[in-house]
Amino acid sequence: MFVTEQRYFRKGFKMRDEVQHLLDRDYRSEAVDRVRENGNVLSVDGLTIRLADEFGFCYGVDRAVDYAFQTREKFPDRRIFITGDMIHNASMNDRLREMGIEFLSTGFDGPTEEAFDRLSPEDVVLLPAFGAPIDWVEKLREKECVVVDTTCGSVLSVWKRVTRYAKKEFTSIIHGKYYHEETKATASQTLKDGGNGRYLIVRNLKETAYVTEFILGRMTAAELTEKLAHGMSPGFDPERDLQRVGVANQTTMLMSETLAVGEELRKAMAERYGEENISEHFELFDTICSATQDRQDALFELLEQPLDVMVVIGGYNSSNTNNLAIIADERVPKSYHIASGDCIEGGTIRHKPAHTPLDAREEVAETGWLPEGPVRIGLTAGASTPNSQIGLAIGRLLEARGLPPEAALR
């Protein structure tokens, strides 16, 4: 009897036990475990390091990494590809390359037609935690590849929301970065199944103000299009498409900003159409993922402690890590966003200044960054940062004060 091979997997291969030792080896940190056991505080010879209560790998990232390892175990003799970064963490993506997983693209641009042309039905393709735009998935289907989908559940929840908006003939206003993989994938959901959904991506409150100015008749459609064309769906007509709107977001944005974006749009709609008619013209549902919010809340709590220095660890192109860095920078004068633990080298720290774009590395080196005498350091990490990098940072901080890394284990 001929059995057709399954071509799409979303729930892994039930092989976690087989790959757990590899995950522990690559991503666990005994130093982090010890500091956690000590109430998230390490104090040695005048150096105090405080960890946030929530940091590092979230469930969605852990799941995606797990599935990638399982995929290599399941298909040891096949070519395995991934559409782009699995997560925004360089060490993680480098580890996948060491496992023989090839990347169809790097950065935010996505695969080219030539990259898709390389694929055959014998190949396995991973979809990253951010998800993938519908047209990418369709091309993989046409190539008859085996697809392993690691899209985060929180992202899927946003997709359901914008799909609902489209069915109700509401335009999805997406608070996010228009070039980010997740935002591209979310926007594409409004157009699936040949639908007539519409979307408009706004990056911040400044861009939201352009939209509200148009809604209130203070800006023309041509002026709005000139400013925000990069975030508009094909054929977008402001006069037609901004009469009924629903707000969604890239899951890793600052929740406070997403809520502010929604409130500005709600106020503009209420002023134009009347508060009594607001439900016919505006909807807002919180679609920030709980892990993103937990890490932001934990950082706010950590920042209530007296700190001399704040260090945030995570990929420079990681949206959730950049937002943590912005929060820290606004409250601790000496705040540093580092890509990995080895950015700390004695008296020098390599870091990315807060408020710089995700697509601009702009790493700078700073000497004399660590104050003399007793010092209190806060430490957190983005949702795509493994504990191994956090543990490395702890060890490097100890070495910067002339202490052995093993001091974290005492």
UniProtKB/TrEMBL annotation:
Pathway it works in: Isoprenoid biosynthesis; isopentenyl diphosphate biosynthesis via DXP pathway; isopentenyl diphosphate from 1-deoxy-D-xylulose 5-phosphate: step 6/6; Isoprenoid biosynthesis; dimethylallyl diphosphate biosynthesis; dimethylallyl diphosphate from (2E)-4-hydroxy-3-methylbutenyl diphosphate: step 1/1
EC number: 1.17.7.4
Entry-linked InterPro entries: LytB/IspH (IPR003451), NT_sf (IPR043519)
GO molecular function: 4 iron, 4 sulfur cluster binding; 4-hydroxy-3-methylbut-2-enyl diphosphate reductase activity; metal ion binding
Gene Ontology BP, a term: isopentenyl diphosphate biosynthetic process, methylerythritol 4-phosphate pathway
NCBIfam families: ispH_lytB, PRK13371.1
Listed name of the protein: 4-hydroxy-3-methylbut-2-enyl diphosphate reductase
